[in-house]
UniProtKB/TrEMBL annotation:
GO terms for molecular function: amidophosphoribosyltransferase activity; magnesium ion binding. The keyword Glycosyltransferase applies. The lineage of its organism: Bacteria, Bacillati, Actinomycetota, Actinomycetes, Micrococcales. Keywords: Glutamine amidotransferase, Glycosyltransferase, Magnesium, Metal-binding, Purine biosynthesis, Transferase. Its EC number is 2.4.2.14. It catalyses: 5-phospho-beta-D-ribosylamine + L-glutamate + diphosphate = 5-phospho-alpha-D-ribose 1-diphosphate + L-glutamine + H2O. This is Amidophosphoribosyltransferase. Catalyzes the formation of phosphoribosylamine from phosphoribosylpyrophosphate (PRPP) and glutamine. The gene is purF. InterPro entries: GATase_2_dom, Ntn_hydrolases_N, PRTase-like, PRTase_dom, PurF, PurF_N. It comes from Leucobacter luti.
Length: 486
């Protein structure tokens, strides 16, 4: 999961893109980049770290132009620390293309070989985004008849990208001289939302971004989600056209967006993230009520931040007081998306502090959105006990994470998942809790999909092991595990 944004405006876009990236920071903390198109020229600034520390005033001044895009990275392929892998990526031919990508490609080995052996293209990193850009460039090049490029040629090139590339990819590109191109993989695994507003001169101004909250904050009307398998082309003067470029498509958005990744105030594929989290809490409360006798729990407590909506709803449903016992240092950032286990472990302690007065002598029910490696929960349970809790029950609003996630969330190896190959009581023992309750897969589906009909199924491979896109088999998973860099 990364955050992406692209804007076509009647005014300079540098500040708007910066502001949008700040709003998407929760989707990636490794590196960030902004590119703008001024006439036929691109300007680009990329840096490691978070948005606030990455850009200087002189960088912002350099980013002239009324069309642009930006990225915050959470690495899933390649190396989080390598600055050359920060996005956007650029190729000089044909025309000059700059691209950002949220997602993860699954046929990178095949694409790497084809790009070298057949297309004669040089790759300078291990990033799958560089592959995606080169496939797009190659297909654009293949479709050129004369000197210039037209709409049909661009859309046809995207159709060929869909035929060659597997995995998940919500993507935005700038093509020098032509404008902005956005496309979303045929399953729409990662989110992409389209918005519009009227500029000071009456020109239509457009935005495409990972999450709807960016559109609302910029004063854009939410037009719709970019459809799975669709491409959208916007010229610098604000003319928008779209085409369904994939012959097959079905919207199957990633369940983990609703559980953890997205901000609660976003609506993705027509489903409010906040409402989904409330419903996850409601469904989890039903399981808790079946497994734990009433009166055994004194208080329900959330693990901030993402566990909060589910915990609130659980407390209400169970009729047990809701209390906040852990307080968060907001300057630490999200722990799960940090690269490397040592830094993740250290950061949990720096980030959360247990307030003894809330724990002393109490039987607490701690609620988190998910347990992945168990880094957060182990530390937290220890902290709750040290603060005087009489007993600690832990509840996860997501089902056990049993399988690697290969579509844009960095949980690639089975051995690092605390639930892998363990029974519930073994996980409970490994975490150090007195009792452990998980959401069921059915409960999760009902909760996230509840109350709407546009989405009928979710990408939920990390819970079920069923991979919808690409040829993800045992051999592939073993290869991913063996080549994981960060
Ligand atoms: O089992 P683990 O491997 O520890 O991963 C799961 C934890 O990581 C996330 O928190 P994070 O600190 O990233 O973000 P948050 O502040 O939004 O909860 C998530 O909310 C869980 O608390
Ligand atoms: N989380 C993502 O969307 C990552 C994008 C891309 N796979 C990278 O590693 O840079
Ligand atoms: Mg958390």
């Amino acid at each position: 999961m990364c955050g992406i944004v692209g804007i076509v405006s009647s005014e300079p876009v540098n500040q708007q893109i910066y502001d949008s990236l700040l709003l998407l920071q929760h989707r990636g903390q490794d590196s960030t980049g902004i590119a703008t198109l001024e006439g036929d020229f691109f300007h680009m600034v990329k840096a490691r770290g978070q948005v606030r520390e990455a850009y200087r005033t002189r960088d912002m001044r350099q980013l002239a132009g009324t069309v642009g895009l930006g990225h915050v990275r959470y690495a899933t392929r390649g190396n989080a620390a390598r600055e050359e892998e920060a996005q956007p990526f650029y190729v000089g031919a044909p025309y000059g293309i700059i691209l950002v990508h949220n997602g993860n490609l699954t046929n990178t080995r095949e694409l790497t070989a084809e790009l070298y052996n057949v297309d004669r293209r040089h790759l300078n990193t291990h990033s799958d985004t560089e592959l995606l850009l080169n496939v797009l460039a190659n297909e654009l090049q293949a479709g050129i008849a004369g000197l210039s490029l037209d709409e049909d040629q661009i859309f046809d090139a995207v159709t060929r990208v869909y035929e060659r590339v597997e995995g998940s990819y919500a993507s935005i590109a700038l093509i020098a001289g032509y404008g902005l191109l956005a496309f979303r993989d045929p399953f729409g695994i990662r989110p992409l939302v389209l918005g519009k507003r009227s500029g000071a001169n009456g020109q239509d101004e457009w935005i495409v971004a990972s999450e709807s909250l960016v559109l609302e904050s910029g004063g854009y009307e939410i037009v719709r989600d970019v459809r799975p398998g669709e491409a959208i082309l916007i010229t610098p003067d604000g003319a928008m056209t779209s085409r369904q470029c994939s012959t097959t498509s079905e919207l199957v958005p990633c369940a983990f967006e609703y559980i953890y990744l997205a901000r609660p105030d976003s609506v993705l594929s027509g489903i409010s993230v906040y409402d989904a989290r409330l419903r996850l809490g409601e469904s989890l409360a039903e399981t808790v009520a079946q497994e734990i006798p009433t009166g055994d729990i004194d208080v329900v407590m959330p693990i901030p931040d993402s566990g909060r909506p589910s915990a609130m709803q659980m407390a209400q449903k169970l009729g047990i007081p809701y209390r906040e016992g852990f307080f968060k240092n907001h300057y630490v950032g999200r722990t799960f998306i940090m690269p490397g286990q040592a830094v993740r472990k250290r950061s949990v302690r720096q980030k959360l502090n247990a307030m003894s007065t809330e724990f002393a002598g109490k039987n607490v029910l701690l609620v988190d959105d998910s347990i992945v490696r168990g880094t957060t929960s182990k530390e937290i349970i220890e902290m709750a006990r040290a603060a005087g809790a009489a007993s600690v029950t832990f509840a996860s609003a997501a089902p056990p994470v049993l399988f690697p996630h290969v579509y844009g969330i960095n949980m690639p190896t089975r051995s690092e998942l605390i639930a892998h190959d363990r029974t519930n009581s073994e996980i409970n023992a490994a975490m150090g809790s007195d009792r452990l309750v998980y959401q069921t897969v059915d409960g999760m589906n009902r909760a996230i999909l509840g109350g709407q009909s546009a989405v009928t199924r979710l990408e939920q491979s990390c819970f079920t092991g069923e991979y919808i896109a690409g040829n993800v088999d045992a051999e592939y998973l073993a290869w991913v595990e063996a080549t994981q860099e960060s």
